[in-house]
């Protein structure tokens, strides 16, 4: 894939899908910025990738996102790609406690999920776009989910946020395509990462979650990373405003 020498930012790069994407980008010759709220994890991932830079950032903090991109400008002088991937679920926001019915969801949990999963993507976009425009264009990929298309009970906040990211992706694609910025999303199915490990391996849920997946396995983080890499590369030069389902056929 055409990624050699490209400067590419990955948020949520310290774990799961983001970390796998950083590693594949590094192998493909990109200069990778590994950004995560967990700074030690970002630095650990970056340490194994030649020329990579590990950065601590909370995507909820718009000023921190701007400072991160300013750091990229100072260090690399340009930004060719961004994978806006950091995200949480209701389970994260509740610290592992059971998710109540939606009418009983604490407001702070609703706000926390929306602030990371939707506002966080916007905060990154508004910081990234000026440097991408100054770089002559670029490719943006946002991480959505099955829940940008369908829902499950007790996942209202996550579903609303991911539907929002799908719309935001289209808005950016329409507005900035003319200026050389493409914006797409990858829609992972059920992926085996620390975010889901507690649920997808539990005897209570495993078979239920596998049943609707035609390929009869959960995705690996690398399965999703490969889809993201293609959307970040020049191989997908005419793809704009689309979502690529990497879900083993679940949505079909
Ligand atoms: N795992 C799945 O089954 C699955 C399915 C569909 C979509 N997704 C989406 O994929 C993305 C990555 O998820 P994952 O499964 O790799 O999870 P993960 O928990 O393994 O990794 C997410 C990373 O994001 C970081 N992060 C969380 N909040 C942050 C913040 N405010 N600022 C900066 N970094 C922050 C975490 O520290 C973590 O390193 C998320 O957007 C998630 O919604 C995951």
UniProtKB/TrEMBL annotation:
Entry's transmembrane regions: none
Occurrences of domain Ketoreductase (ranges): 6-176
Keywords of the record: NAD, Oxidoreductase, Plasmid
Coiled coil: none
GO molecular function: oxidoreductase activity
Gene3D superfamilies to which the protein is assigned, alphabetical: NAD(P)-binding Rossmann-like Domain
InterPro entries: KR_dom (IPR057326), NAD(P)-bd_dom_sf (IPR036291), Sc_DH/Rdtase_CS (IPR020904), SDR_fam (IPR002347)
Stored PANTHER family: DEHYDROGENASES, SHORT CHAIN, ESTRADIOL 17-BETA-DEHYDROGENASE 8-RELATED
Family of this protein: Belongs to the short-chain dehydrogenases/reductases (SDR) family.
Name recorded for this polypeptide: Short-chain dehydrogenase/reductase SDR
Organism: Novosphingobium aromaticivorans (strain ATCC 700278 / DSM 12444 / CCUG 56034 / CIP 105152 / NBRC 16084 / F199)
């Amino acid at each position: 894939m055409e990624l050699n020498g490209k400067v590419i930012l990955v948020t949520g790069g310290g774990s799961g899908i983001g970390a796998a994407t950083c590693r594949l980008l590094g192998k493909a010759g990109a200069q990778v910025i590994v950004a995560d709220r967990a700074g030690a994890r970002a630095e650990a991932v970056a340490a194994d990738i030649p020329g990579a830079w590990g950065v601590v950032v909370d995507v909820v903090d718009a000023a921190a996102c701007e400072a991160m991109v300013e750091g990229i400008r100072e260090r690399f002088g340009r930004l060719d790609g961004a994978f806006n991937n950091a995200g949480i679920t209701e389970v994260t926001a509740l610290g592992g406690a059971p998710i109540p019915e939606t009418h009983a969801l604490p407001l702070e949990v609703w706000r926390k999920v929306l602030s990371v999963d939707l506002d966080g993507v916007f905060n990154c976009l508004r910081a990234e776009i000026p440097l991408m425009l100054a770089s002559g264009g670029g490719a943006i990929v946002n991480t959505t989910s099955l829940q940008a298309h369908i829902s499950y009970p007790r996942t209202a906040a996550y579903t609303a946020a991911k539907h929002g990211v799908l719309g935001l992706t289209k808005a950016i694609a329409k507005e900035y395509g003319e200026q050389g910025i493409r914006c797409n999303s990858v829609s992972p199915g059920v992926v085996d990462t620390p975010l889901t490990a507690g649920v997808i391996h539990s005897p209570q849920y495993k078979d239920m979650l596998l049943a609707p997946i035609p390929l009869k396995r959960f995705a690996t983080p690398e399965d999703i990373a490969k889809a993201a890499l293609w959307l970040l590369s020049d191989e997908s030069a005419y793809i704009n405003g689309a979502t690529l389902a990497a879900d083993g056929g679940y949505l079909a």
